[in-house]
Amino acid sequence: MSQVLHPIEQKILKTLAEKKNLTPEDLSEITKLSLDQIRRGIEWLKFKSLANVVESEKTLVTLGKRGNEASEKGLPERQLVNYLRSLDGYSCEMNAAKDYLKNEFGPAIANAKKNGWIEVHENRLMLKGYHDLSSEEKIIKTISKTPMGVSTDNFEDKDALESLKKRPEFIVLTSKKSALVGLTEQGMEAAKSVPDNIDFESVSETSHKVEPDAKVVRAIDVEAAAPVIFAAKSHPLRDVIDEVREIFVSLGFSEIIGSNVQSSFWNFDALFTPQDHPAREMQDTFYLADVKAKTIAKPDQIKKVSDAHKKGWNYQWQNEEARRLVLRTHTTCVTIRELADQKHDEARLFSIGKVFRNEKLSYKHLAEFHQVEGVVVGKNVTLRDLMGLQTEFYHKMGIKKIKFWPTFFPYTEPSLQSMIYNEKLGKWVELFGMGIFRPEVTKPLGIKNPVLAWGGGIERIAMLRYGLTDVRELYENNFGWLRSVPKCQ
Q: Could you list the residue ranges that cross the membrane (predicted)?
């Protein structure tokens, strides 16, 4: 199948067919196209398997500050030899050579002795042997003739090069990457079909004149790949939250919303949690410093909850402790206040929102996460109704294997733990807690009928949905993962 070629591609193909392998810079010079046009054309040809690029890297050696001085005056050891030649007897006292060479004296003595150019007798230097150019001097001479640098591959004496590298500021090594562009077999065939009379000047960077009535007609490659576009979409966790909300609404529930900041009265006391319970300590709860609630509830609500604590827990209940403000540790505080204020005889309510726990972050715990909770109020509701509702909810979430275990929760009795089977892990996993509100919770607040309640973390559902093993992955903004996650249907 023939491919549609842009004039830039045609010009590169034609040039490479004649000149074989060239660098992008060579192509730019020969074709008179800009380097950007050349690079763009090369990428197009690579994509169509018409050209290939072989990249290489070489190290260039140039002279440093002291290297430039050595190319003019000679290396320190050469300067020492020349100094001794200028003296009678070709020898001198050590101090005289030191005064002449100054800071270069040490390297000059060491390298001159290594080359066999001098002898040291007590405190005197004497010239000896032949003084042909050393390997280091040959390298300096070679580099001085090529200011742009010489590749390290051009030097056979690697030891001499290493020796110069250890001498500060004599040579400088820099890495330079290069690329050779050539044609594939398909490219050679494609080059044969490029017409000789094509107007290459129309794509030259130096040609900008276009006739007013001129029309440029080019073929369109309908098989060319379209650019990848990542359209905006909601976060996977938000998708799960919306799905959970939609399921509850479809089951006849109404959503209630409450503040993230609650008094300890509604967050703990109204739920029959004693004021000395460990969950109310600073290490488990975020308290607001230096501020307390002015009003927490109606006077009769406060009195009846206080009496329930005194009778049930046998301690002196403190109003000041109930006025402390906390970042809610669950959404049940919103639900229980709604039931206490509205006195529902029958109701189906749910709440979704953030909750806060003063916990150490780990693969399964966050200090801030989302919780969903639902309640059903009715005269004849039973634990079997609660299990049926939970089963229906899980089925709508696509979870088929469910079972329930008896457990303990502070403000429900009886209490159950729902378990769902995770196919990927091959085991049962705890999910939502559930139960019936205790009389110590409902009676002080004037709630007459039984209340079925359940709740749990939405992040845990999201982890199961997306096969994650660390809850923190939901908040890492990994664009690769976010783009790969399919949107919930």
A: none
Q: How many CB atoms lie within 10 A of CB 58?
A: 14
* CATH homologous superfamily, domain 237-484: Bira Bifunctional Protein; Domain 2 (3.30.930.10)
pLDDT of 217: 53
Fold of 62-176: Arc Repressor Mutant, subunit A (1.10.10)
DSSP string over 171-229: EEEEEEEEEEEEE-HHHHHHHHTS-TT--GGGG-TT-----TT--------TTSPPPP-
Cβ-based neighbours of 415, under 8 Å, separated by 6 or more: 406, 407, 408, 409, 433, 434, 435
Domain boundaries of the chain, sorted by first residue: 1-50+184-226, 62-176, 237-484
* Distance, CA of 33 to CA of 13 (rounded, Å): 13
Of the CA atoms within 13 Å of residue 200, those in its CB half-sphere come to 18
What is the per-residue pLDDT for 218?
58
Q: What angle do CA 162, 165, 171 make, to 5 degrees?
A: 130
What's the confidence (pLDDT) of residue 1?
44
Rg (CA), the chain: 42
Query: Any idea what DSSP says for residue 282?
Result: T
Is 304:265 a contact under the CB 8 Å cutoff?
Answer: no
CB 348 within 8 A of CB 251: yes
10-residue averages of pLDDT along the chain (489 residues): 78 89 90 92 91 88 91 91 90 92 90 91 86 89 88 87 89 87 91 73 48 54 78 90 95 94 94 88 86 91 94 91 93 93 92 92 88 94 94 92 92 93 83 94 93 93 87 89 77
Q: What is the pLDDT of residue 278?
A: 86
Strand partners, 409: 412
Structure tokens at 47: 């994509």
Judge whether 141 and 65 are in contact, CB under 8 Å. Answer: no
